[in-house]
Amino acid sequence: MASKRKFNPSFNIGVFIPIAITLVAFAFASTFIGISAGLIVVLFTFSLYALFSLWTYAKTRNIAYFAAFIFQSLMVIYFLTVPHGLIPIGSKEKAWFFYFCGLIVAVWLVYMMATGKGKWKGKNVFELAALQVNDTVNGYTERPRPAGKLHYTKSELFGFAEFVRKNLIALPYIEQDSVVFVPVKMGDEYKFLLGFAGDHRFHSWVSFDFEGNISASISKKDYLCFTEEFSFDQLCDSLGKLFIEFMEYYKKNETERILHRLNSLKFGYFE
């Protein structure tokens, strides 16, 4: 595997902003109002995270988000029931039961983070697509490019879409005559899941129509994240062929090979 990265978007700090705001708000409320106010801030934050995790699990069926929902829910109960919480249940030890259960779930959650099960793999997708591209002629254009043809049934296509969504490789959008796959990078998932991303065709995508035709397009934002001005046509062709390869693995029931290829890049969790 090539050691020099070809796709290198700037580090997305968006995932850390809610954490920073929570810590600052907790410190402010605890210092100037009281510890109970600080606990309410943390309780509110964990409640929002839990709702987002549940929403994401409902949209993707990704098990890491279900684990996150359980952990965040247990933390909500813990901060509710501690002696200074909104509904204290008595001794500190009783509240700590929920904290202990949360720690157990947290170990499960950390394991899934370490194995990439909860990571959005858009960056991995673009890096794999760029591995075979070296030409730096004919830079960015807005037109999509055909990437080939493949035989598959609608049932296989919809099953592949479910696999891709569940493993956070891309978000599938079902259109009248095709399924469009949009690779999502870590930090960008919030705008897609909360409906702030706009039309999915404004982003990079790979389209599988019901006649077996595959086409691809890379957005200008993603194109500018490549380390060089690689040939746009070749990048689109390579992106489309990568998804064709993934579909072929899926049809042969060799989905582990898809995940192995993506995880072989050894990106960090927040990349």
Secondary structure elements and their pairing?
Layout (H helix, E strand, L loop, with lengths): L16 H16 L2 H26 L2 H19 L10 H23 L7 H9 L14 E5 L4 H13 L3 E5 L3 E6 L5 H5 L11 E5 L3 E5 L2 H4 L8 H20 L3 H9 L8
Antiparallel strand pairs: 1-5, 2-3, 3-4, 4-5
Helix pairs in contact: 1-2, 2-3, 3-4, 5-9, 9-10
Give unreliable regions as ranges: none
Question: What is the share of helical residues?
Answer: 40-55%
Order of helices and strands: HHHHHEHEEHEEHHH
Give the strand tally: 5
Q: Radius of gyration from the CA trace?
A: 22 Å
Question: Strand portion, in percent?
Answer: 5-15%
Largest sheet: 5 strands, antiparallel
Mass-distribution shape: elongated
Number of domains: 2
Number of helices: 10
**Strand arrangement across the biggest beta sheet:** 1-5-4-3-2
Structural class: alpha+beta
Compute the average pLDDT. Answer: 88
Oligomer: single chain
Q: Span between N and C termini?
A: 18 Å
